Amino acid sequence: MQQPNIIPPRSGVSFILRQGQQLKVYDIEGEQVSDFICYNLHDKAEYLSSGRTIDYADTIFLTKGHPFYSNRSNVMFHMVEDTVGRHDFLLTPCSADTFRIIYGHTQPHRGCFGNLCEALKEYGIRPDEIPVCFNIFMHVAVDGDTGKIAVRPPKSKAGDYVILEAHMDLIVGMTACSAEMSNNYAFKPIGYEILNANE
Amino acid sequence: MQQPNIIPPRSGVSFILRQGQQLKVYDIEGEQVSDFICYNLHDKAEYLSSGRTIDYADTIFLTKGHPFYSNRSNVMFHMVEDTVGRHDFLLTPCSADTFRIIYGHTQPHRGCFGNLCEALKEYGIRPDEIPVCFNIFMHVAVDGDTGKIAVRPPKSKAGDYVILEAHMDLIVGMTACSAEMSNNYAFKPIGYEILNANE
Q1: How high is the ipTM of this complex?
Q2: Fewer Cβ neighbours under 10 Å: the N or C end of chain B?
Q3: B132 touches chain A (CB under 8 A)
Q4: Where is the DUF1989 domain positioned along the sequence (chains A, B) (predicted)?
């Protein structure tokens, strides 16, 4: 078997995923989160939209079978497999501001947001163009009565994965998450692999 | 008393709200929704962010007292008064695609999205720059166990209102919502007023 690519703890990557290709995202050690965002390779103003996707799926918990829509209501990819069944699509990536505001850090890490900014620079994506991300394996509990949210340890165990199949040529940005609460206070790597890269 | 400005049913407006000014948004007849979005007047790449706001507030139900953050984690405004207590910050504005995909309309209305595009054109805001909106008075039920969402009639009655106070100079876009489910199948107007416009 091809070895998956590794995203080291608290870092990010970007790459191109072509229409029809499948991306497998692994939680290598368990209880780790990967913030995921994508853009139409041929028109970067078209991006993954939480609002459109949740509206058309009628759920905030996206899983196997769900199509994921762009801000222009086009399907960007759909989820082919999901061994975990719980991810977040409400929150923006952790950032220096997150660590300052939520954690009270005085010399904050740049977070997944900073890592995505750095990784996506190669494709001309600016920081202001990074919206709400699809946070793979992130477990955000939502109280439907009060609206209260709580970030819990991911339900993913070592070896768990999702597979996403692209419906258009995509620029993808992905991280191994940097925020303590998201990954149960242990920063770990994330694995990924393009399953049919040579077809 | 100054008469409020009226947004006719299924239409939208844009205007400038200066730092320190308060915007009162009325549900004139009851059970109507207003999709609200704003941008930093002096740098339009800074916009209202659902993900940042929900993350810092620890709730998906924003109400009196909550600050609303931009994508750059700056406070754009805070909610000073709220006679309803239930609004939505998960969904994107209804659009021709919404009516096509969710309602099955073959000649769809342009929706709040189309109305915001038209209204914000004056300030050079492009359609791709309209993200998830703060949907005032919109009642979206969320099941915390299954993730399932359901659009319900607003809890607002005739005369209910919210007041928002700007923390920076803002370009504001607002609608009287166009989607049947959001307003209990009766399209109605929305009122608004800048309370301290002449200070």
Answers
A1: 0.94
A2: N
A3: yes
A4: 6-171
